[in-house]
């Protein structure tokens, strides 16, 4: 029998049609056959329903059930609703379950709560494919999606605190300078390579492998810098080539360095290019929104912007995937257009290899297609920059940061932990309360002993009993396990969790079987690069802080150079003495 059977007849008559027909018989005194002909239903069915309905109403009971009911359901509608909400939360936290994990999770739930299920589930330790297909049809709000790879710094940095600071600075700048939309600009870099990703082609059916030509196995990267404003205008892009010297035959505006990446000197060149096209001045200022890349934070660049009426506003770190207008709506279509243009170039130049000198011509064809006024305007709109909208991002979009939202551990130099130093949003926020607290109907004794997620060095289960809570907030939001549960050894795998004693279906909770992951406490450290935040870089306090930071870096480099020279001299003297002794 096929999984989706096409019926040749209707599945009965809807309840509201039968009720309308029964009301006509009762109120207007019409015959059953006449009303049945009017509604195109069987007169016998209408007679039985009308008779049963009158008897039940006289006895004070509910209306009769109509239609077909599902038989041998593993979970009730309320239980499936709870599972659906759990899967949605897991996906919001960027720890979504694949179809196989959902089937395995359903088997664990059915075993733990004593639900009836086919014997094949026990043999394979997971639910059947038919159950999963039916579950997805019964819950149309769920779908199988291919997730976009998101790094851990991006997931943790995009939180309510960082985003709130950015909109505070943006509001302050807009109120102070009264910028119009044509004076609000965003600048961002992207990479264009000489090896493209080929488009799909029409080929022979059944062929195992279909090929398309590229210039090489790995391409050479050229950095391209673009800028657009809130009304959709753009300025000519600038290229940074991986060469020592910039040559005129590159036929574009750009610079060159050994790496091909943006550096401080290259960004100053672009600022002059930007000022030339925007005609900014102290009397007609413009707002330039950019990320926190180190090349954008040079003192010379800040002084140039202050002199020429360019107000620099930096985005929060690792938030460009959500808050960078060009990143949201322009660079995606640009990469597709570049791939198509590269395919056309390879077909029109058979036997030739694409070089970095051909990239400006490729971008010349693809940039007008992607950087359209509507795309650029949509980038500013969807990020809440213009029109200004502070609450453009919903609560569930900050959910991934809740996994790493934890207090700081005290170190030897600090007397206590300082939760305020964390850049993550406070646990008392509405979204944190929705995801961090367990269901109210789950008793403490039914809480899991440990998470069934894969154990990693950076993640620890929320309800783990082997580690005490790191803060009073955590201990208050998560009830401790019972003494009996703390004595037992926590399971280490999803299969081990199925050996728990069956629980009552009345307290059905997926989080009791597989709690959402939670990172351990953060350790305070001074190693690594300085953690930055959104700031108005052209303001005097920020400029002074940048100068102090740059001076400290130069001082450290000078000390290191002096120490290295002294060590070289000392080593040379020792080698000279050794040679004199040997002589």
TrEMBL record:
GO CC terms in record: nucleus
- In which domain of life is the source organism classified? Eukaryota
**Record-annotated DDE-1 domain positions:** 221-342
Concerning Pfam families, the annotation shows: DDE_1
Compositional bias annotation for Basic residues: 515-533, 556-571
- Compositional bias ranges of the Low complexity kind: 458-497
Q: Which segments show compositional bias classed as Basic and acidic residues? A: 572-583
Fetch the InterPro entries from UniProt. CenT-Element_Derived, DDE_SF_endonuclease_dom, RNaseH_sf
Q: Which GO terms describe its molecular function?
A: DNA binding
Write the protein's name. DDE-1 domain-containing protein
